[in-house]
Here is the input.
Amino acid sequence: MATNQKGTYALLAILLITVMSVGMSVNGYPAGGDQQGAGEDWAKDSIANGCSCHMDEQLDEGMYMLDGIPSKYVPDTTYNISLVINDTNVISDPEAIRYGGFLAEVSEGAFQTGALYWIGEGGKYISHNADSNAQRNWTFQWTAPSEGAGDALFTIYYNVVNGVGTNGDQWGYISSVSIGTPQVVSEEASIHELGVSLMQYWIALLAIAVVFVMILLAYVVIRGGSSHYRG
Here is the structure.
């Protein structure tokens, strides 16, 4: 029988939409994960370590709106997630061909494919591509995992760009949690679940101990008798 892990969901709920104010940034590509040299290795490294391209420091003056991530997901349900970003410090050239981009990772479930997005590692990662970097808003889909998969942690980097070079662009970082059903921690049944009572359990242990003592006594007696015979 599977055993469900009990957690303190009230504390996790506090993390529902948390903006991290530290200066973290990722290695940005105009075509996101689709660009040559990017791909899954780039996404994994960027999420884990960040980088120092474009602008090393986040000025915390950017704005964002993240909508569609449920506080508690329904297993196997597909949700539309919308991300809108902006930054008052970044003024885009009217003739620019790039305005922004994003990279997201989810710990459970999977992002869905789409013409405007790059998908990596079976839906664990999603980013803009060359067809969706001339905007600062995106709507993509995420399918929640099956029951018993646990909480889904979303990590999202976004970049507001001016379209005229690598200077003056601004990065942002968002973390969000969608609470799920507890993970299955073991498929093995406990001894009590097999119908063995506590008394029976201790009686069995005692019987095993008695057997070992009897074997030890027999060994001592036999060894002592053998030594006396040789003498």
